[in-house]
Each structure stands twice: as C-alpha cells, then as structure tokens.
Amino acid sequence: MDQLGLLLDGFAAALTPANLLWALLGVTIGTAVGVLPGIGPALTVALLLPVTFRLEPTSALILFAGIYYGGMYGGSTTSILLNTPGESASVISALEGNKMARSGRAAAALATAALGSFVAGTVGTIALTFLAPVVSDLATSFGPPEYVALMAVAFVTVSALLGASLLKGAASLLIGITVGLVGLDSQSGQPRLVFGIDSLLDGIDVVIVVVALFALGETFSHLLTGTGHSTVEPLRERAVLSGADLRRSWPAWLRGTALGFPIGSLPAGGAEIPTFLSYNLEKRLTRHPEEFGKGAIEGVAGPEAANNAAAAGVLVPLLTIGLPTSATAAVILTAFQSYGLQPGPQLFSESGPLVWTLIASLYLGNVMLLVLNLPLVRLWARVLTIPAYGIYAGVVVFAALGAFAAGGTTADLLVLCAIGLLGLVMREAGVPVAPAVVGLILGPLAEQQLRRALTLSEGDPSILVSGPVTVGLWCVVAVALGLAGVRTILRRRPRPATRAGQQV
C-alpha cells in the first residue's frame, strides 16, 4: 500500500541521529512536565515555540509531538502517587491508581499505566497511519461553504466541551476571535481594533498570545492562591506486573484503545470522555467488583489506554482538516503556522515527507517512552519534590524571553503582560482558555472562507447550506448546542428533597 511505502520513507528520515535526539528530548520533557501538576504539554509547547524558530520544521514538530505524547504518559505518575492529576485526562487514573499506591501497589499501578499507554499509543498511531490519508483525500473536495460549516462545528464543540458551561466557552471563543482580528483587514486594508497604536497594525503574534494565556495566566493564578511545596514519598520498587496483574490488564488495554481512538478522532472528541467511558466499562465487566474503589488495576489500565489512544486520535482532525480538539493540539497548530504550514487536506500532498516523518517519530517516541517510564519511575517520582515556586519562576522567565524573541520589541512584552492578566481574569472567572486559542487561530480563517463563499454566491447566504455536507455539518452544530444546553440544565436542576429521616 502507498501508506506503507511513505511510512518507510518517514522512518528513514526519523531515524537520523538529529531527529532521534529531538524525539528523545521531546518525550523526556513531556514526561517531566506531565508529572508536574499544573505544567501540562500545552504550556510547555507554548513556551518552546519562540525558542525553536531556528530549528528545521521537521525537527521542531518531532519535538512538540514528543512533548505531547510524553505529557500523556507522565500525567499518570502524579495521579497515582499524589492523587493530583497533571492533566485533565488523567483524573480517572487517580481514582483507582492512588488507592493502589496507598495499599503498597504503586509499582504495579505505574507499570500497567506505562504498558497500557505504550500499547494504546502504538495501536492508535497505526490507525492514524492508515486513516489520516483517507480523511485528507475526502476533505480535498471541501469548498468555502464546507469550511465555514466545519469551523462552526469546531467553534461550538470546543466551546461546549472545554468549558464548564456553554456560555463561558462561547465567551472564551469570542475573546480569541476578537484578538485574532486585531490589525489590518486583509481585503480592505483598514485597521481594526488597533486604537491608534501603530505596533498593533501587524496584529498580535499568535505565539505571544498563547504564551501569555497559558504560561502567565497559570503563573499569576498560582501567585494568588499560593504555590506551596510538592512532597512525595520516594518509590523503592521497580515498576513490574505480576502474571495475574497482566492477565487482568491486557483486555482493559484493548478495550480502552477501542474507545479512545475513535472518540479522539472526532472533531468534538478529546481524551477526557473516553477515559470516563473506559472506567465505567471496566467497572461493569470486572470479575472483581469488590476491588473497585479500593484499587482495581483494571480501573487504571483501561483509562490510561483510552487516554493515549485518544491522543493519537486527536492528530487525525488536526493533520487532515486543521481542527484542534484539545488545548495542546491548538498550540501545535500554532507551531505549524509559525513555519508557514497549514494543516488540512493539502498538507499530505504539499508537505508529505514532513508529515510521514512526524508519524514515524510517534512510533519511535512510544518505544522511548516505555524505556523511560518503566526503569526511571523513581526519578520521575523525585521530580515531584521540586518546589512549585521554583517552577513558576522559571516559567515567567521563559515566557518573557520567548515573547521578546518572537517580536523583538518592548511593546510585545507589554502585550504579553496585558494578555497574561486577561488569562488570570479568565481563570478566576472559570472561563476556559483553550476555546480562546481555537478562536484566535481559526477565527481569521473562518472569516476568510465566509467572504469567499459570499463572493462566489454574490452575497446569497443560502450557499452555506447548499449541499449535503454543509447541511450535515450544520446539523452537528445544532446537536452540539442542544446537548450543551441539556447538560447545563441538568447541572442546575435542584436535587430532589430527601424524605424525612432518610440519610443523605
């Protein structure tokens, strides 16, 4: 098959010493930041964006992909040992994993998480290899009306899923779109939202906005609440699985993978939903129901596999149609654009060698992660002893250096601080940051496609619903809005009053 030949060419490029070094560096950094609570892969990639401008695009993207995969691996360590998930997708692993750790089975919990992540990541990458080119070929038939509807799907689903409420998600999205429209109008040349400030005529650099919202916003938030000190007992065991644990774990790995990749591949996917579904499935299918809630190994194996399979699935809409469905994917999309690359249907045809080298590096990264996670568990546990104030001090320094490197003026530092304060206000108000990044990146593209569609139809808006694909996509938008509304109503519905004398 064509994919196998192209993948072999990708392996030939990925196996060069330089690219192997970037992949190893990426997975190592990713695992370390995944271990540290609050320092996720999205923030790390955002900080490294300005630093990697001088790298070749292939090397930089291999580094970022390694950080992405490594972050998904590392998040399980802090969930299991500290009951403090480093990533939202690792929340479920803490339910049973921390119980295992408290009962003296931390090594088994970490081992099943690492092996399950390897199995799911590899299977997910295989599926990505064969599915992504097919989706890309289908998307090449899309015109401006289809892209407008597709971006509407991205706006609605990201706002609904990544926010505590649809209203807050939409508010974040509008903030991002507004920031993205600052500068000169590409068609009329008229300044928009610059308020007489000449330095804003070229717009606000996406890298500065991403660094400010993620890095400074997070740091300011911790400054207000207190950073504290991280402590954890050192792990004295090797991460190994007994035969009984392995027999209970491998079916959960496969089931988690089967749930994670398809859901992660959807425009409204992500890694959180399949981890919850996997946990519920394992709880129903287990032969040891008495262990759930007390440290059932299936409750760690299944969600961790679902988490990492979804991580591979998220790359499908990102690479094939240019839609990020997670915060880290949105930042990686920024990395593509900083090198003049636009993920979408043309990416495989215009930058095929780069894409296939990137996919090949994912296979290598999975092997590297397994080698790093099993023997070095005690090292990652010690990373948790780093005081939080030291970590966030370094984040501020790198954020300032990165912003100055991206723009080269003091005005960029002022913009960085202003947007960082905006990020703090958003966090304090419970407004998610990820929809703002999606709006920032896709807002100008959506405007461009909308103008093209209306130009083709001479101003007739009916062109936006002129075909079966557009109608189907708008139906998805309506369903997503409806589900988000129902979820909000259910959350606000008061609990039924308990009967007199009934224990709550």
From TrEMBL:
Pfam families reported in the protein's UniProt record: TctA
Transmembrane segments: 20-49, 107-132, 152-181, 309-333, 354-374, 386-406, 463-486
Keyword Transmembrane helix: yes
InterPro entries per the UniProt record, alphabetical: DUF112_TM (IPR002823)
Keywords: Membrane, Transmembrane, Transmembrane helix
DUF112 domain span: 20-437
Protein name: Tricarboxylic transport membrane protein
Lineage: Bacteria, Bacillati, Actinomycetota, Actinomycetes, Pseudonocardiales
